[in-house]
Amino acid sequence: MRITSVIVRCLLAIICVFAMSGCSTFLSGSEDETSSKPTQTEPASSNPENTDAYQRAEQSPGFFRMRLGKYLVTALYDGSIDIHSMLMKGRPQSTITRLLMQAKQPREVKTAVNAYLLDDGERIVLVDTGASEALGASMGKLRESLALSGYPPESVQTVLLTHLHPDHAGGLLHNGTRAFPNAQVYLSKAEGIQLLSSTRNNATLPVFQGIQKALAPYLDAGLIHVFDTGAEPVSGIESVALSGHSAGLTGYRIRSEGESLLIWGDIVQSAATQFADPNISLEFDHDQQKARLTRLKAMREAAQSGEWIAGAHLPFPGLGRVQMLTKTSFRWLPIDYTQAMSEARQRRPMLGK
Q: What is the average pLDDT across 120-140?
């Protein structure tokens, strides 16, 4: 027993010495003097402004990847807009408030502003541009999100606009110049007919003046193109008429390896209320009744087809599917982070067409 206790004490002493002196020399087998010294590390800065890490007071960089066949889809976060329940129409305020409460949302809901980058290995296409300087400090993060995702603005070859509202087209401009200097810009003829007509400068509303300012350098350079809805502005990307929220709201659909993704722009601005009741519209919809009918039709088709949806104002990253609960009520099924980069065969297949 005495011998055993002596051995144990010796082993403990060796372990303590080993732990205090570090194990780098032992593991490396090197007797180099510099390698035997413990690594010196810089103390953590007590001032958050002096650290290189992303600021603790801010959300993480706003980009998210999804694989859809040959396409790498990157969701880009531009910021958020406040939409008060008083701006929601089509149902009594008591109904709207109840739906917000059920979703644990305040009456003044922050709705995300998302854009989407499509990369098929040959082309880089950006769908919508965010707001840039157009709508205040809560937005204008798309440029940073784009850069952090690995795409400089110069890499964007094509910009497809769902419609000409400032939170979708304002980001065309950066410091008074073209934010995407190498991009051709496309929008539907129905959406652009007013602002791109010879009388566009007669518009007096500030929102139109802001859009005109964002479009101007592209117009001057001959980089604006219009197309008939239903056409393919870019080969392999189909345009889809979704008018109501704006005169020519246009969605964009891509298909690859048996899967489909529809970027539907502003079909939904309040996920907490409009999936449960598509009849709820927004005060600033161009045609509220048409917006309601378009939303109901788009949700039914998405639920029946099982295709992926990308929404400009769905909770970031705004990618997921639609589930039908009743003929007039739906549920949003956001994409699972762990499945986003999976191949089509590893996901639940699309249903129907």
A: 86
Q: Do residues 133 and 165 make contact, with C-beta atoms less than 8 angstroms apart?
A: no
User: What distance in Å separates the CA atoms of residue 333 and residue 320, rounded to the nearest whole number?
Assistant: 5
C-alpha 150/C-alpha 144 separation (Å) is 10
One-letter amino acid identity for 130? Answer: G
Q: Tell me, what DSSP letter sits at residue 336? A: P
- Please write the tens of the pLDDT for every residue from 260-270: 999 999 999 99
Query: Which residues touch 94 (CB under 8 Å, ≥6 apart)?
Result: none
DSSP, collapsed to helix, strand or coil, labels residue 220 as: helix
CA-to-CA dists, residue 138 to 67, 112, 115, angstroms: 29, 10, 15
Is residue 345 very low, low, confident or very high in pLDDT (cuts 50, 70, 90)? confident
Asked whether 69 and 344 are in contact (CB, 8 A), the reply is: yes
E-state strands within 166-311: 173-174, 177-178, 184-188, 224-227, 237-241, 250-256, 259-263, 281-282, 308-310
Q: Is the pTM higher than 0.85? A: no
DSSP category for residue 344: G
Q: Which of 257, 304, 349 is nearest to 68 (CA)?
A: 257
Q: How far is CA 251 from CA 86, 191, 248, 265, 309, in A?
A: 27, 12, 10, 6, 10
The single-letter code of the amino acid at 319 is: L
What digits encode the pLDDT tens for the residues 268-281?
999 999 999 999 99
Beta carbons of 64 and 75 less than 8 angstroms apart: yes
CA distance to 6, 9, 65, 294, 352, per residue, from 12 (Å): 10, 5, 51, 75, 69
pLDDT, residue 55, reads: 65
For position 350, what pLDDT does the model report? 66
